[in-house]
Design a protein that fits this description.
The chain has nine helices and eight strands. The structure holds zinc ion.
């Protein structure tokens, strides 16, 4: 599994993303977040952000949907109360990184320190130690994999994304981009902050949420956090 992980991480940075994304799913279903067939995991990266995350929390509460937020330690440090509020609302926090710098630019010790610092801050401010890690840009360097193992964090990327980080993204474009990969077992990647993307890009993800939830409901699919996605039930964690 470690070899697969390294392949996926290197592949992510190459030009033909669509082809490689399919290859990654074929090689590493657990890494791509493929879970139980009647469940869709909803995940958000780059928060928490006081300017946008509360709006996501409000819409999710209205939809009665809980999700997993892969947060940046630097953002949690700026808004610890918001991070605690997310967990109190039933959402799950995972480790994204301390900042958004590529892990390929860090050595193993720095990578470990970044993930450790973020993990411990999340646990400190929310009372819930995180279980999952998704490094910035989905780049699974060998340092990330080693640190994840040492810190008991399961690496999870995604199987469907909405390209919601671009300046021209709209709720309709997000839904159209997600559609081909939106099925039972999928892990959906969206963003609840624009701190690393086009200003206001998160509005496209926010606007897509009600229809996304409705489509899953129509298809008989539950939507929830990775904790309820059945990744551990497959017995794949032990193979990392
Ligand atoms: Zn990110």
């Amino acid at each position: 599994m470690v070899t697969f992980g390294l392949t996926a991480g290197v592949a992510y940075g190459l030009p033909s993303l669509a082809t490689l994304r399919r290859a990654r799913i074929r090689l590493t279903p657990r890494l791509a977040g493929i879970g139980t067939p009647d469940h869709v995991a909803l995940t958000f990266d780059d928060g928490p952000d006081p300017a946008s995350t509360p709006l996501f929390l409000a819409v999710l509460a209205e939809l009665e949907v809980r999700a997993t937020f892969f947060v940046l330690g630097s953002q949690v440090q700026r808004a610890p109360g918001l991070a605690a509020e997310m967990v109190a609302a039933g959402h799950e926090l995972g480790v994204h990184g301390w900042d958004h710098r590529s892990m390929l630019l860090r050595g193993p010790r720095s990578t470990h320190d970044q993930l450790l610092r973020t993990r411990d801050l999340i646990a400190e401010v929310t009372g819930q130690p995180p279980r999952h890690v998704r490094p910035p840009h989905g780049i699974l360097s060998s340092g990330v994999l080693l640190a994840a193992r040492a810190l008991e964090l399961t690496p999870v990327l995604w199987s469907a994304w909405g390209r919601d980080w671009t300046a021209d993204a709209t709720p309709a474009s997000v839904l159209a981009t997600l559609a081909p990969d939106l099925r039972g077992g999928a892990t959906v990647l969206l963003h609840d902050s624009d701190c690393t993307s086009a200003p206001g890009a998160w509005r496209s993800a926010l606007g897509a949420l009600p229809e996304l939830a409705a489509r899953c409901d129509d298809a008989g699919l539950r939507v929830g956090p990775l904790a309820e996605h059945g990744l551990f039930d497959h017995g794949l964690f032990a193979r990392v």
